[in-house]
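sry for the spam today, last one i promise. struct tokens for design, 317 residues
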């Protein structure tokens, strides 16, 4: 067990959050993570509000532990979803792909803990002033939509800039990454890619298999010219998107090309022409495990890392 400001704030056993990954983080994954003592998170992604409401109700049937909902702020349904989250009594909200400032007062009025994902120090400072309870500091190693700064460089800079608790994300998938994040000033971690490979995710096996087989250089950044770069595993989708960008295709064309491609990979199992969002740490992930085993494994590894580090301090030979 690791007690930090995050376990206290969120009333959870381990300071480990599961990333709110569109199409992947359903009620089933979220409940499994929460039941294992971490914080499970339902991804609202681009789902209409009423479907998010159903997901929230289903997660409550599967767990009595705290859970969260991630709002993808570029969704046309973001505002509706904020309303539904307030009605349904969700304990924690994380946000991504934008500044959640306009929604924070309403969420706080409903006693909801608000934890925005930030890719820069300036946004971290801004959301702290706007009333965020904690922040997820996400480095460019992460899968999906990303910023430009690495976790290693960003987390300590944010830790020096804000007073609220910090959760490090991007490039964390084992006990070494977990302890490294704490050493950088974080109070917890969020993991996406490792939980994609949990036995409880209902996505197509092909998606998980591609992560298990991935090597260190397989997770590329695609779609820079759209203004919303994404980290995905290399395949025909990344090749064709890059060719479209080189041919100076306009934003509408690029968006049309990328639309529906994540669902295609995650549900149809089309890992050739679909978008396989995954982080740079994919190369480290070699097996499918239950959420409980993932969390317990990381906790055990973390204890081992601490012992090794203490023996360095004591000067053992
Ligand atoms: O949001 C994510 N990861 C995502 S969202 C997503 S759906 C999507 N698909 C295609 C293109 C774009 C989105 C897939 N993966 N992670 C959290 C995250 N948030 N990463 C980066 C940011 C972010 C970026 C800019 C947060 C705030 C921000 O603020 C800009 C501003 O308005 O100040």
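last one done:
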């Amino acid at each position: 067990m690791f007690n930090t400001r995050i376990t206290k704030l969120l009333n959870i056993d381990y300071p480990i959050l599961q990333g709110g990954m569109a199409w992947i983080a359903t009620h089933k994954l979220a409940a499994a993570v929460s039941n294992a003592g971490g914080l499970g998170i339902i991804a609202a992604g681009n789902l209409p509000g009423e479907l998010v409401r159903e997901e929230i109700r289903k997660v409550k049937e599967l767990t009595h532990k705290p859970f969260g909902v991630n709002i993808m702020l570029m969704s046309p349904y973001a505002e509706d979803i904020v309303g539904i989250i307030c009605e349904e009594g969700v304990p924690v909200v994380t946000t991504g792909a934008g500044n959640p400032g306009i929604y924070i007062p309403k969420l706080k009025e409903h006693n909801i803990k608000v934890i925005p994902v930030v890719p820069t120090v300036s946004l971290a400072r801004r959301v702290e002033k706007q009333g965020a309870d904690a922040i997820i500091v996400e480095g460019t190693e992460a899968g999906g939509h990303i910023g430009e700064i690495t976790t290693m460089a960003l987390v300590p800079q944010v830790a020096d800039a804000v007073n609220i608790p910090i959760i490090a994300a991007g490039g964390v998938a084992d006990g070494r990454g977990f302890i490294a994040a704490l050493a950088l000033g974080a109070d917890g971690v969020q993991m996406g890619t490792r939980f994609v490979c949990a036995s409880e995710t209902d996505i197509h096996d092909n998606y998980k298999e591609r992560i298990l087989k991935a090597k260190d250089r397989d997770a590329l950044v695609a779609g820079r010219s759209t203004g919303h770069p994404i980290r995905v595993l290399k395949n025909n989708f990344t090749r064709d998107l890059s060719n479209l960008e080189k041919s100076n295709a306009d934003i509408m064309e690029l968006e049309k090309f990328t639309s529906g491609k994540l669902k295609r990979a995650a549900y149809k199992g089309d890992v050739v022409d679909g978008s396989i969002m995954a982080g740079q740490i994919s190369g480290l992930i070699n097996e499918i495990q239950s959420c409980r085993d993932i969390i317990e494994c990381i906790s055990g590894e973390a204890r081992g890392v601490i012992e090794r580090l203490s023996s360095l301090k004591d000067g053992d030979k």
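The pocket of TUI is lined by residues 22, 72, 74, 96-99, 117-119, 123, 138, 144-147, 228, 230, 277 (CB under 6 Å). ok im logging off now
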